[in-house]
Design a protein that fits this description.
With about 650 residues, the chain is mainly α. Helices cover about 60% and strands about 0% of the residues. Strands 1-2 form a two-stranded antiparallel sheet.
Length: about 650
């Protein structure tokens, strides 16, 4: 019977302990020891025994073994029995302490910082207090600015927070050297209504000291990071009541604006507008994006003060403030109510209603991380969308189109689709079709609504004439509007979405009838749409080869771009179709085929690439290089005579 995970863990821990001890005890050169330890480092749980091998390697040669120590270092205390202990109180405590002292003495910042954090343990209140004492003691003991920078670097622990007394002590010794360290270790405030005990308070003494010596950057950074909601509101209102010029007022408000604004910041903005009017609008426009609804989804509610701010902006005619606030701060319910309000006003003043409606369109708040971003866009309801299209069809298909993005969790716009069919608004209908293509109705909370909308759209596209490329152009237009990454797994979508089956499975022959449609598919942002184009162009027909050759500029790029294997093989078939059409096209593709052989991607199907190049060179012998010419070996003359 196979061993359990726990049995395997205990065995591996026991074996690792024995292997490390035997390796350290063996008589060998430092180079041999390093090679042996690097071999052990590739086995499980090597890092858990840092307490055992780390001090020994440091004593042997701290320079030679430093890269290995840093790469495999792991704070912990795994033993041969599979238990975890505190090694700073165990059999190797003295060796670890000596290692820590040596790293401190030679100013090995990285090794000392890791050992120091290991010995200190979790940043409990007691450990944090000890860390603060060590920071002040080491900083005061350093005799030069360079030494003080080194002292702080050694104890620069992520997540450790200073208190004001410690920060004042550091600032009193060397303000310039301590400045960045203090800012990196400020207490973290979750929000301006942070109710933790002990509370995070503003460091008024250090703030005043920084202002007195002219370090406004430090002073206001402290303020923005540590201020509470009540203090911030009092200071902002005091500035508004002053006689400062508008530009100075905005600058001072910006200096005090906290990194995380309170949820009811809109109420403060209303008070600022009441006091100073248009003077504070530049400040408002920059920070309205920090005001969010309370709650999420259908339970979201407008934050305190937002409706007052919207009303105030309407009364004063500030369409810029109103548009930004309703687009970024409001709930979907409020957004739709404002659209209805201006549609009602359009009968008396169409130009004004049109201008204000335009102001409220676009993306709201954004959150961006490396390689990932989220944008908040408020959707129109089906009823409001129909009313908007009836009154301002150009706005519906223009700036408001972003707010008609039907999704699996939202409305399918069945009544709007019916109206678009009646009015023959093809551009907007194709846009809605591009969003409907990505929806699996059986997984939607509005499944019946989606099934009706998909049947209506599919019936409409099926009724389009195939002659003259009418269907192909409309279908390709909808497919090319599908956003990138909108389709995950295509197979389950095809089993439940009738419109997707029509476009992706049942219409290959019709796309070949319209050259512009094929190019639209190749240039589409969604990879499944591009794969459809590869499949169509990879057919073994004269028409497919002709269109593939006409789009060789797009196809040659597929040889060098990242693609999944299945999509790559489909692209190879399209490339082969283009290369076999005529020699001039093949001459453009052969250099790209050869370039693809040196790509470092280990999953690139080089075997299929060899087959593709062989087909092209077999069809067009004139393109062969000298090394690619076939060589036929015949029997020698002596063998022929025999």
């Amino acid at each position: 019977m196979s061993e359990s995970w726990r049995q395997r863990f205990l065995r591996e821990a026991r074996e690792m302990d024995g292997a490390i001890r035997s390796t350290l005890a063996r008589r060998q050169s430092d180079a041999e020891l390093r090679a042996a330890m690097e071999t052990l480092a590739r086995r499980p749980h090597f890092g858990g025994f840092t307490w055992l091998w780390g001090p020994a390697l440091h004593v042997k040669d701290r320079v030679r073994f430093r890269p290995l120590i840093l790469s495999a270092f792991m704070p912990g205390g795994l033993t041969a029995k599979g238990t975890v202990v505190d090694p700073w109180k165990g059999e190797n405590a003295a060796a670890l302490a000596t290692w820590l002292e040596d790293a401190d003495r030679v100013d090995d910042v990285e090794v000392f910082r890791r050992l120091y954090a290991w010995r200190l343990g979790a940043l409990t209140p007691k450990a944090t207090g000890q860390w603060r004492e060590d920071v002040v003691q080491r900083f005061q003991a350093a005799s030069t600015r360079a030494a003080r920078h080194t002292a702080l670097a050694k104890v620069d622990l992520p997540g450790a927070a200073l208190d004001e007394a410690t920060a004042l002590a550091l600032d009193g010794v060397d303000a310039e050297a301590a400045r960045d360290f203090i800012l990196r270790h400020l207490p973290f405030r979750w929000n301006l209504q942070d109710h933790r005990e002990p509370p995070v308070t503003l460091w008024t003494t250090l703030h005043a000291r920084a202002l007195a010596r002219g370090d406004a950057d430090l002073a206001w950074t402290l303020y923005r990071r540590l201020v509470d909601a009540r203090t911030w509101k009092q200071d902002a209102l005091a500035l508004a009541r002053s006689t400062l010029p508008a530009d100075v007022l905005v600058r001072e408000l910006e200096a005090r604006h906290p990194g995380m604004g309170p949820s009811d910041a809109a109420a403060l903005f209303v008070e600022l507008v009441d006091i100073r009017g248009r003077d504070v609008v530049p400040y408002l426009l920059r920070h309205l994006r920090a005001v969010f609804p309370v709650g999420w989804g259908s339970k979201a509610q407008d934050t305190k003060g937002l409706k007052d701010l919207l009303k105030l902006a309407r009364v004063r005619g500030w369409d810029d403030v109103w548009g930004t606030a309703v687009r970024t701060c409001a709930t979907a319910e409020t957004f739709n109510a404002e659209v209805q309000r201006w549609l009602a006003e359009a009968d008396s003043d169409e130009a004004t209603a049109r201008r204000w409606l335009r102001r409220m369109t676009g993306a709201g708040a954004e959150w961006n991380l490396p390689g990932f971003g989220v944008t908040r866009v408020l959707p129109l309801t089906d009823e409001v969308a129909v009313a908007l299209h009836a009154r301002f069809p150009d706005l519906a298909r223009g700036p408001f189109r972003l707010h008609l993005s039907a999704s699996q969790w939202g409305t399918a716009y069945p009544r709007l689709i019916d109206r678009l069919l009646q009015t023959r608004d093809e551009p907007l209908l194709d846009f809605l079709a591009s969003r409907a293509l990505t929806v699996a109705p059986n997984a939607s909370p509005t499944a019946k609504e989606w099934e009706k909308a998909l049947d209506t759209l599919a019936s409409h596209f099926e009724s389009l004439p195939r002659e003259g490329g009418v269907f192909a152009r409309r279908a390709a237009g909808a497919l090319s509007a599908v956003p990138a990454y909108a389709v995950g797994n295509l197979a389950p979508l095809l089993s439940t979405n009738r419109l997707a089956r029509l476009f992706f499975v049942r219409s290959d022959d019709h796309y070949l009838e319209e050259p512009g449609a094929v190019r639209d598919l190749l240039e589409a942002p969604e990879i499944h749409v591009q794969a459809l184009a590869f499949r169509v162009l990879g057919r073994d027909t004269p028409r497919a080869r002709e269109l593939a050759a006409a789009n060789v500029d797009l196809l040659q790029a597929t040889l060098l771009r990242p693609l999944h294997r299945r999509t790559r093989l489909a692209a190879f078939r399209a490339v082969a179709s283009a290369a076999l059409h005529d020699e001039d096209t093949a001459r453009r593709l052969v250099p790209r085929l050869r370039d693809a052989f040196v790509l470092p991607d280990t999953r690139y199907p080089k075997d299929a690439l060899v087959e593709l190049l062989a087909r092209v060179l077999g069809r067009w012998p004139a393109l062969r290089a000298a090394s690619e010419q076939p060589r036929v070996f015949t029997a020698s003359r002596e063998a022929a005579r025999a």
